[in-house]
Amino acid sequence: MEDFKNRIINRILKENLDYKESNEISDIMGEPIYSYGWALEYDSNKNYIGGRYVCGPICSNESDLVKAYKLSHELGHHLINNKMNPLILLAYYEGNKFLEFFIEILAWRKAKSICLEENINTKTLSFFRVMTLGVLSYLIGLTRYILNIVLNILKIFSLIFFIVSIISYKESLKISFTDIFEISFICFCGYLLINSFRKLISKS
Predict the structure, then answer these.
(1) C-alpha to C-alpha distances, 184 to 62, 151, 160, 169, nearest whole angstrom
(2) In Å, how far are 59, 140, 158, 184 from 147, measured between CA atoms?
């Protein structure tokens, strides 16, 4: 009878993906890295053909069952990419943190389906632990991303508010705090609009 890991490897090969192994270790979790290699590529009929390989560790102390769970998760990413809207896939490819978190959850749901299809039990503490740690790592990244956005917004708005306040003081303009706030908000919105146009132009 095939072991759990090889069942998933055979499934990976059936999906026309290569299977590779490496010695990479995660800097964050300190565990062997499992990955899905892909590119943003479509055929003439706009079907996704960007899947390249699934990579697992050469040497690992993990159980055969855990290896199967993690490999099925990477294969799950491929199956999700196959059905994803091209525009959403583009945003994901470019590193949208919200999409990364959402797709990570979907990939684990897909991993569960794959394991069930291959007669691998997912009602185990090992599956729950591996899935939770995987999702948690993306949740931490998303939280940091949101905090950075909020901090940058506060910094930029505070700077604009300070500049408007200085100008109104030097010009002896008799405007209230509310007026200064409104002017600062309008300037801030203008800054965001200009910055958005600049990014669009740089991509085109």
Answers:
(1) 56, 17, 6, 14
(2) 37, 11, 16, 22
Place of tokens 């309008």: 186
- Amino acid identity of 10? N
Please give the backbone phi and psi of residue 55, each rounded to the nearest 5 degrees, phi first. Answer: -115, 135
Residue type, 20: K
Angle ∠(140,93,95) on CA atoms, nearest 5: 35
What's the CA gap between 139 and 120, in Å, rounded?
27
Vertex 201: Cα angle to 90 and 91 (nearest 5): 15
Give residue-wise pLDDT tens across range 39-92.
Answer: 999 998 888 999 999 999 987 888 999 999 999 999 999 999 999 999 999 989
Q: Residue 122 has what DSSP assignment?
A: -
> Average pLDDT of each block of 10 consecutive residues along the chain (204 residues)?
85 95 72 90 90 90 93 97 92 90 96 96 94 91 88 83 76 69 76 70 61
